[in-house]
Amino acid sequence: MTISIIITLCLLLLISYVFDLTSSKTKIPSVILLLLLGFIANQISITFNIAIPNLEPMLPVIGTIGLILIVLEGSLELELNASKSVVIKKSSIMASLPLIILSLIISLIIHLTHKYSFKICLSNAIPFAVISSAIAIPSAKNIDNKNREFITYESSLSDIIGVIFFYFIILNSSINTKSILYFSLDLVLIFIISSTATLVLSYFITKIKHQVKFIPIIILVVLIYAVSKLYHLPGLIFILFFGLFIGNIDQLRRFKLIDKFHPEDFGKEVNKFHELIIEVAFLIRSLFFILFGFLIQPHEILNLDTLLWSLMITTLIFSIRYIFLKILHLPTQILLTIAPRGLITILLFLSIPASQSITFINKSLVIQVILMTSLVMMIGFIRSTNKIEK
Q1: Where are the domains of the chain?
Q2: How far apart are CA 129 and CA 125, in angstroms?
Q3: Of 62, 101, 142, 375, whose CB has the highest number of CB atoms within 10 Å?
Q4: Is the dihedral of CA 185, 188, 192, 194 positive or negative?
């Protein structure tokens, strides 16, 4: 039995690697293929009556580790210099304003149609407003550097802002001056923690001479994130801060403290670290979406009760995105459809407390929105490629 599981897992991961290699040719987002792969594996296990233990509790664990690695991978690729000020400004606006406006509109519709309190509606709406960097960043690798950089900034910031916004809403019984003050103190505290932890981890990168070097650092990064989450602090800020710092050490050489890290040698070590993060992030991301696909039931995809809501949410996502792309004079042909929902949507949905859940905001709705936004992205890639070829 153990050997069979190992063989099956190896085959699934190798197939997911083939999906990743061929996505630039097929234009099919790998997330759709991974979900389908997991779904088929589940149907085979049912057909042949293969006993599978309950894997659902593993989903949030794998998803959280995947989110950490994907945001870290994205932040390591970002350059911070004067020439990037425009793209940082525009991506920040695209990551925040559409998210807030979309959340408020969906909340208002739920509030008016189902009479839940606006705060509960908002906690259920936010997961659908966050762009999934786990899907957007890998999918954008086939477009030009300038737009790929924009997508990396936008989706990483969307994850961070979305998570902060979500936990601010669900953890405060009421939104008032006191809750805003405590929230501001949390932000100050996480910036202090991020600065201290980043300097310590960076020192480890330069000083550890043991052959096992980067895995302990990754474990420490995950540990710091987990402890910050335990105290309801926005831990993704630390992940972004750490990645930006070690990835842009050359830009900080004007500070005397940076000389202690020996930037020339430090850059070589960071390149090795980045390569390892890419490999591990691919593994965790593939496992997450295969597992999520494995847990999908046919009736959840074809649920007609949630279909109208999923269509409405998907339409709102791309309508609001189109408006903001036009306002900011950004290329709609390439960027409009790259707004998938995925890993972060699932994690936030699973984090909604039972006391704040809404009956029809369920797994079926989440699956349908993820599939619809991924299909729209696939169609966008195919259309833009055809236009470029012509």
Answers
A1: 2-389
A2: 7
A3: 62
A4: positive
Give the pLDDT confidence of 231-271 residue by residue, as tens digits.
Answer: 888 888 899 889 888 888 777 666 666 666 666 677 788 88
**Distance from C-alpha of 73 to C-alpha of 296, rounded to nearest angstrom:** 28
Q: Which of 349, 350, 331, 341 is nearest to 377 (CA)?
A: 341
pLDDT attached to residue 259: 66
Architecture of domain 2-389: Up-down Bundle (1.20)
Handedness of CA 192, 157, 144, 280 (dihedral sign): positive
Residue 11: what residue type? L
Helices 2-26 + 30-47 axis angle, to 10:
150
The arithmetic mean of pLDDT across residues 41-51, rounded, is 85
The answer to whether 63 and 286 are in contact (CB under 8 A) is no
Which pTM does this prediction carry?
A: 0.87
pLDDT tens track for 126-145: 999 999 988 888 888 778 88
